[in-house]
Predict the structure.
Amino acid sequence: MSRREAILDIYKMVLGAFLFVSPWLFAFAHGVVAADAWFSSAIIVIVSLATLVGFAEWEEWLAFLLGVWLVVSPWVLGFQHTSAMVVNLSIGIIVMYLAALELWVIHFLPPDTPHHADKT
């Protein structure tokens, strides 16, 4: 049985994969910056995959917190004003948005209902 919001988890997996290759794409494949990208991307992909296999709300909250980490990590780890910061901010904000959107969908939208033909 598939969930209508599962596509958001697939988007997060794609973002995680992009984050994984970003150190090579944007030439920061060294040190703590690359390690942060690889570690964060691995967790994003694993959490998104786990959510696809068996949904639990806490997985979306974890994805949201991972997005928050990506946003604050340039300042925490000291790589502000770099291309890595732009990548982390961009992906972090999108991951936060997708996780928040999925939480909103599961709590505030009615469940799927079959479409009915006009009753005329």
Summary: The longest helix spans residues 83-108. The two ends are 33 Å apart (CA to CA). The helical segments are 6-25, 31-53, 57-77, 83-108. Residues 6-108 form one domain.
